[in-house]
Each structure stands twice: as C-alpha cells, then as structure tokens.
Amino acid sequence: MKFLILPVLLLGFATTTLAQGTGVAFGTIRQDTGLPVEMSADNLSVDQETGKAIFTGNVVIGQGDMRLSAPRVLVVYRGDTDGIQRLEASGGVTLVSGPDAAESESAVYSIDSGTIEMSGNVLLSQGRSALSADRMSVRLSDGTARMSGRVRTILQSGGGD
Fold it and tell me: Quick check: is 55 in a domain?
C-alpha cells in the first residue's frame, strides 16, 4: 500500500502538514470488540506453560468488518485463560476497516481496551488522501485514530489543471 502515496503526490500539492499529533477518523463504523475473533494462518504453535499462541504465515484476523493481516501474530490470553487479552502482529501489518486501510511494521490489538497501537512507518490511506506517521492509535469504540511522531499528509487544493 505504500505505493498508494504516489498517486496522491501526483494529484498536486496544496500543503504538507507536519505535526506532533493529529486526530483522524478511521473506518466507517464503530467496532464491537466483543465480537468473535476469527484467525487463519499457515502455522500455529502453542505454549501451554506461558498461555501464548503464535500464528505464522499469511495470518489473517477478522472481527466484524475489521481485518488485520501480518506474517506473524502472537496471541496472549488472559491470566484465567478466559479469552484473548491482546494480539501482537509483526513483520508488516495491514489493517482494513471499511474504505480505510493502514500499514505499519507492527501492531498491538488490546482487546479489553478496544485499541490498536500501530508503530513503525505507519501509512494511512483514505480514498485519495494519505497520512504517514511514526505511530497511530486506533480507538475502535468510536472509530477514531490519533497519529503521532512526524505526521505528514498532502492536502488536495480541490482545483487545478
């Protein structure tokens, strides 16, 4: 998806935003974090002593209309083994919700808090617009995101030749 920024650049520069933190909408709906988490992968390794499972190879996670994919996902269960506490994705992560998509080097989905923390070269694509930053925090309860760490975007002027 990093190639998606090229069409935005070619459409014409209006201005570039450089900020330390920017709030944006993410996805078109609020995500119910109580929905079942569906996972598929090429491989699964389970460690009964630590209560962790590692999915590797073409990992795809679905919850409602949200999809997350990565080469590797560590599943950390709650202490009482009654459900998932968090998912730690790494190796290049893609998160899709409605028409919006984001990429990063890694992401942590905390189920109970309903947040996804993406870090490392985050690129958010929303239609013809794109934003990049060091980090992005998505709050699924209201479909909002906050980008921080050298936030950059190109704003379209709406006119031009």
Answer: yes
In DSSP terms, 95 is beta-bridged to 68, 102
- Does pTM surpass 0.70? yes
Domain containing residue 33: CATH number: 2.60.450.10
Say if 159 falls within a structural domain: no
Both tokens assigned to 20? 């330390």
Q: Quick check: is 38 in a domain?
A: yes
Q: Please report, in tens digits, the pLDDT of each residue of the chain (161 residues total).
A: 333 333 333 233 223 333 345 556 666 545 667 788 899 999 999 988 877 899 999 999 998 888 999 999 999 888 765 788 899 999 999 999 888 899 999 999 998 888 999 999 999 988 888 889 999 998 888 888 899 999 998 766 666 55
* Cα separation, 1 vs 80, whole angstroms: 39
Q: Is residue 160 part of a domain?
A: no
Tell me the residue range of the domain where 49 lies. 2-154
The CA distance from 153 to 84, in Å, is: 35
Query: How many domains does the chain fold into?
Result: 1
Dihedral (CA of 106, 29, 40, 52) sign: positive
